[in-house]
Amino acid sequence: MNKIMKLLFVYLLLPGFGLGAGSAYASSAGEPVEFTVNMPEDVLSFTHGFSTGLMRIPEQIKSFENGPLSPMIAATFRLRDKGGNLVGMASQLEIFPDELGPRPDISWKTAWTITTSTGSLYIHQDEQVPAVHITAFAQLMEGKNWEGSLMGQISSGPHASGRGIIIGGTGVYAGASGTFVEKVDLQALSIDGKMRGIMILQIYLD
């Protein structure tokens, strides 16, 4: 049970475990700009202040435990386009209301910085655990591997639509405004701690 719960924490805290591909440029009007990350090969760093046995990347990275940063998670990773080509980097900071971390009955704040060769974006959102993903972990907790496809929206606001908000940008994104959605297509969980899926950041520019 402890191993399964640790896996659940890994899934909830990492910005999409097993991420897919997206586009670094807007296509036609109304269509989103998409960014994704392949996990774990694109994860550059991941640390937090929780004492749950949750992994840190690399293992020797500084912990946030027992200090003012304890309720936070910080991660950096490489970004890809729809063809799987590396197009930039991103950082993510998640801020929780306490040191217990994510759980289905709370929401928390997340800030992203996205940087490509053509410009940067600063975006933020409220996050929640999507209920649709809990069914996969329920099977895992019965000691069974799970495979399938469960698309869940992580974003829950602060925009009235349930999307996150674009704060601004530089370069081609200078003066940017609009909304964004973070989604995760959970595809496989195994009792030995492995996970597969696709996380997508869809940026809707005004």
How would you portray this structure in words?
This protein is mainly beta. 11% of the residues lie in helices and 42% in strands. The chain is built from two helices and eleven strands, in the order αββββββαβββββ. The chain has helices spanning 2-13, 131-140, and strands at 33-35, 43-48, 72-80, 86-95, 108-116, 119-127, 146-153, 155-157, 164-169, 178-189, 195-205. The chain is globular and about 50 Å long.
Concise structural overview:
With 206 residues, the protein is mostly beta strands. The chain has helices at 2-13, 131-140; strands at 33-35, 43-48, 72-80, 86-95, 108-116, 119-127, 146-153, 155-157, 164-169, 178-189, 195-205. It is built from two helices and eleven strands, in the order αββββββαβββββ.
Helix and strand topology:
Blueprint: H1 2-13, E1 33-35, E2 43-48, E3 72-80, E4 86-95, E5 108-116, E6 119-127, H2 131-140, E7 146-153, E8 155-157, E9 164-169, E10 178-189, E11 195-205
Antiparallel strand pairs: 1-11, 2-3, 3-4, 4-5, 5-6, 6-8, 6-9, 7-10, 9-10, 10-11
Keywords:
single chain, 206 residues, mainly beta, eleven-stranded antiparallel sheet, 2 helices, 11 strands, 42% strand, globular
Given helix and strand content, the structural type is: mainly beta
Assess the beta-strand content as a share of residues.
35-45%
Helix segment tally: 2
State the helicity in percent bands: 10-25%
Which regions are unreliable across 5 or more consecutive residues at pLDDT < 50?
12-28
The count of DSSP E runs of length 2 or more, i.e. the number of strands, is 11
Rg over alpha carbons: 16 Å
Largest sheet, if any? 11 strands, antiparallel
